[in-house]
Amino acid sequence: MTGTDMSGKLRTAAELLAEFRPRSEKEAADLARIAPLATAGDPYDRARPLHLTASAVIVHPAGREVLLRWHERQQDWLQVGGHGDPGEEFPAQIALREAREETNLPDLAFWPTARLFQVVVLPVPASASEPAHEHADLRFVLATRTPSAVRPERPSARVRWLPLGEAREAARGEALRESLARVAELLENDGPAGPPADGPSWSDGGRP
Fold first, then answer.
1. If we measure between CA atoms, which residue out of 164, 153, 130 comes closest to residue 57?
2. pLDDT in tens, 70-88
3. In terms of Cα–Cα distance, which of 65, 48, 77, 28 is closest to 176?
4. Residue 16's CB: how many other CB atoms inside 10 A?
5. Residue 206 CA from chain centroid, whole number
6. Using an 8 Å Cβ cutoff, are 92 and 99 in contact?
7. Prior bond to 195 cis, omega within 30?
8. pLDDT for the residue 10
9. 2 versus 43: which is more confidently predicted?
10. What's the burial of 172, exposed, middle or buried (CB within 10 Å: 0-12/13-18/19+)?
11. CA proximity to 61, closest of 139, 1, 165, 147
12. Could you give the CA distance from residue 109 to residue 176 in angstroms, rounded to a whole number?
């Protein structure tokens, strides 16, 4: 389950989802809703009541820490990520761009490759600018060797590093708790091997 095929071609959401294997009944149900969306027009169109987003859990493998970002709208600490920009097509690239914008970390790389490691449908409450809707979120893992270089994109979007155990205790949402549980498995195995990714992979620069 990587972000490229054997030729190095970037993978679309439809291609990634076609080979994704859910790990629970809930994830299987979410996948069944998301998969048709990925082949219907622009799946990132925010006018759709259910549209694709891409996010990433950022880890510092050497310190066994994860980075969480404060989201004002949800009033919660969550992973980084968001919507595709016009013209964007590949989920891994969207997740990487969003992560760079929200953290300013200079060395983010897929860990260990651009592996789609979770899919989840999340409700989003109505705001002054848009009605209630749902995000079909495609999740990845990114890593950094320079955790102290993190800088939030704006003062209200605070970020903080937490040891994995504390992050799992602090996580309020079931989806993020599951994300962190899967990150824990990757850390225990030091990340599975895999082919090249949609962007820099952890193996490009060696282990810390």
1. 164
2. 887 778 889 999 999 988 9
3. 77
4. 23
5. 22
6. no
7. no
8. 78
9. 43
10. exposed
11. 147
12. 20
